[in-house]
Amino acid sequence: xxxxxxxxxxxxxxxxxxxxxxxxxxxxxxxxxxxxxxxxxxxxxxxxxxxxxxxxxxxxxxxxxxxxxxxxxxxxxxxxxxxxxxxxxxxxxxxxxxxxxxxxxxxxxxxxxxxxxxxxxxxxxxxxxxxxxxxx
Amino acid sequence: xxxxxxxxxxxxxxxxxxxxxxxxxxxxxxxxxxxxxxxxxxxxxxxxxxxxxxxxxxxxxxxxxxxxxxxxxxxxxxxxxxxxxxxxxxxxxxxxxxxxxxxxxxxxxxxxxxxxxxxxxxxxxxxxxxxxxxxxxxxxxxxxxxxxxxxxxxxxxxxxxxxxxxxxxxxxxxxxxxxxxxxxxxxxxxxxxxxxxxxxx
Lengths: 136, 201
Fold this sequence. Notes:
The complex is a heterodimer of chains A (136) and B (201). By secondary structure, chain A is mainly β. Chain A has helices at residues 8-11, 37-41, and strands spanning 2-4, 48-52, 68-72, 81-87, 90-99, 102-106, 115-117, 123-133. Chain A has one domain: Umud Fragment, subunit A, CATH 2.10.109.10. Chain A is built from 2 helices and 8 strands; from the N terminus they run E-H-H-E-E-E-E-E-E-E. Chain A has an 8-stranded antiparallel sheet, with no helix packed on it. Chain A starts with a strand and ends with a strand. Chain B has helices at residues 10-17, 42-46, 59-64, 74-89, 115-130, 142-154, 175-182, 187-195; strands spanning 2-7, 27-30, 37-40, 68-70, 94-99, 102-106, 134-139, 166-167. The model of chain B is unreliable at 159-166 and 168-186 (pLDDT under 50). By secondary structure, chain B is an alpha/beta fold. In chain B, the strands form 2 sheets. A 5-stranded mixed sheet of chain B has the order 5-6-1-7-8. Chain B has a 3-stranded mixed sheet with strand order 3-2-4. Chain A binds chain B through residues 3, 5, 8, 13-14, 16, 19-20, 44-47, 73-74, 86, 89-90, 124, 126, and chain B through 18, 20-21, 75-76, 79, 82-87, 89-90, 93-95, 97, 125, 128-131.
């Protein structure tokens, strides 16, 4: 897994100064009919990162080797979410399932093992996957 | 009221976001051309590595304690800085970006908000959005807010956004004595302040 910062020109990050300004134009809805892919997939520019997948452990979820993930750190983890996790020194992409006193990191590929995470593990959820970009 | 939001060990914290395995280890980031240590993790500070020390003077410490050494990556730090500032800007009426890792927040109009709770919330949101730990001091002036954030950093229990400090009862007369060393004045000005009777701690 390799993590990337979105390139700035494409993301068009809002200017910090702009946050203060007030009433939006009523004509704004009609000003631009084009669709900007970046705007579509980056809901929160402050917390969104890209990652390129290596390996096929999530292939049954439609996530394969070389695909690009749009990852949002601001999203709260929910049961079954697909997340980039950091477990005992390594990044891994898995479903996160909560089970009482432990967490299961479940792959989307039967050839791979489920990882059981308890209090003894060093574990953090780095970010939640929001979109997958793949070439067909 | 003003707040100063100051990212803890900013360059090191940026590197750690993308390599969480570095948490708990001594890490330093070097200046351009790998000259001097310009950002140090708390573990590196505890080894006695001073701000700005040339790398060749600490070679033995680096080897002995397995200190992780990074060349600076300003494209990364600039991007992470924007993310922190953007997160903060969404929470307050106005923000003044003071440096790559610091911003003053103008809290005018928020007098009736619980500012301690606000500071904790702001710090926690920066951490969540970006992974960067941010200390926030709240006070009646910018100078005092800066001091509050520095005091906050000096107390491990307060780090990581757990307990930002609010200074509200410090009088003007008290200010010079504690702000002189803390607000990073140049050494000469510092000596001059001593001459004219301001105390340092």
